[in-house]
């Protein structure tokens, strides 16, 4: 980075993710009848928690890096003509896994990624319920920290046989089932939100294929962490995954615990 050391910024970035997580938990711990759920224009659910986390993250990032714009799921949609020439920007999902939040299964996360030349170079994923942080500064590996315990360096398993595949808790398609039949799979695990990337990064699973639609802020932080742990996220044909597209909707992708 030209204006700051990302490594030195990480403690503040991790705390920002935790602060957003705490705001989410204040809503999550209310009786379900008190949680207001509305629908976005695409009919996906929006809770008070989404907006509270967005406000904390956007304000915090503006203080930490005032010259770097923020692209957030809950923020004002930035026209492509304005963002197409961004060299750096933050790609944020304040609450990934809103359906998991609403169903009260704890499998939701806060996602923050730093993009450089339209590639995820650093990322933070925070799961508030188990108090688990996954993160990378893009240069020194990827790490996991549970509560205040010492951080653990993440490493993919590297296995290419007897694979454990990770699937979405809320989404599944016939196309995914067909695609995965070509791999030597021995088991599967289902989990919500960006935690799927984390399971591969820490070696507990090796394969995740997504056919259905996601948004760029759903994948950016996970891709940065997975890459630093030794895995990768690509298009199904092996080509690099595009970001900052005119339409922020993602196509299909494949995550592997090897490169």
Distance between the termini: 26 Å
Number of helices: 7
CATH architecture descriptor text of the largest domain:
2-Layer Sandwich
Q: Strand order within the widest sheet? A: 3-4-5-6-7-8-9
Unreliable segments of 5+ consecutive residues: none
Rg from C-alpha positions?
17 Å
The CATH topology of the largest domain is given as: Fructose-1,6-Bisphosphatase, Chain A, domain 1
Strand segment count: 16
Strand content: 25-35%
Order of helices and strands: HEEHEHEHEEEEEEHEHEEHEEE
Assembly state: single chain
Residues in helices, as a percent range: 25-40%
Largest sheet: 7 strands, mixed
Count of separate structural domains: 2
CATH top-level class of the largest domain: Alpha Beta
Instruction: Give the structural class.
Output: alpha+beta
In short:
By secondary structure, the chain is α+β, with helices and mostly antiparallel strands. The protein is 30% helix and 29% strand. The strands form five sheets. The protein has a seven-stranded mixed beta sheet with strand order 3-4-5-6-7-8-9, sandwiched between helices.
Note down, in words, how this protein is organized.
The chain is an alpha+beta fold and 259 residues long. It folds into 2 domains: 6-151, 2-Layer Sandwich (Fructose-1,6-Bisphosphatase, Chain A, domain 1); 163-256, 3-Layer(aba) Sandwich (D-Maltodextrin-Binding Protein, domain 2). 30% of the residues lie in helices and 29% in strands. It has 7 helices and 16 strands. It has helices at residues 6-28, 48-64, 80-83, 98-103, 174-180, 195-201, 216-228, and strands spanning 37-39, 45-47, 70-72, 88-96, 109-116, 119-127, 132-136, 142-146, 152-153, 163-168, 185-191, 207-210, 214-215, 232-234, 249-250, 253-256. The strands form 5 sheets. It has a 7-stranded mixed β-sheet, sandwiched between helices. Helix 5 (174-180) links the parallel strand 10 (163-168) and strand 11 (185-191). Helix 1 (6-28) runs antiparallel to helix 2 and helix 6 (195-201) runs parallel beside helix 7. The two termini are 26 Å apart. The relative contact order is 0.14.
């Amino acid at each position: 980075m030209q204006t700051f050391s990302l490594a030195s910024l990480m403690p503040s970035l991790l705390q920002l993710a935790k602060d957003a997580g705490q705001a989410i938990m204040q809503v999550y711990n209310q009786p379900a009848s008190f949680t207001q759920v509305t629908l976005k224009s695409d009919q996906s659910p929006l809770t008070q928690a989404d907006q509270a986390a967005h406000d904390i993250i956007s304000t915090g990032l503006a203080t930490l890096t005032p010259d770097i714009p923020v692209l957030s799921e809950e923020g004002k949609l930035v026209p492509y003509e304005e963002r197409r020439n961004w060299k750096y920007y933050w790609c944020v999902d304040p609450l990934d896994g809103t359906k998991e939040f609403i169903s009260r299964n704890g499998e939701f996360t806060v996602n923050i990624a730093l993009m450089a030349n339209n590639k995820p170079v650093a990322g933070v994923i925070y799961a508030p319920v188990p108090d688990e942080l996954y993160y990378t500064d893009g240069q020194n590996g990827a790490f996991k920290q549970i509560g205040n315990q010492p951080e653990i360096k993440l490493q993919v398993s590297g296995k290419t046989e007897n694979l454990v595949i990770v699937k979405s808790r809320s989404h599944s398609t016939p196309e995914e089932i067909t695609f995965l039949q070509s791999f030597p799979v021995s088991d599967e695990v289902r989990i919500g939100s960006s935690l799927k990337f984390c399971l591969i990064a820490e070696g507990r699973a090796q394969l995740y294929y997504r056919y259905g639609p996601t948004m760029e802020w759903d994948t950016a932080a996970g891709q940065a962490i997975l890459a630093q742990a030794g895995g990768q996220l690509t298009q199904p044909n092996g080509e690099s995954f595009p970001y900052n597209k005119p339409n922020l909707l993602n196509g299909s992708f494949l995550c592997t615990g090897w490169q």
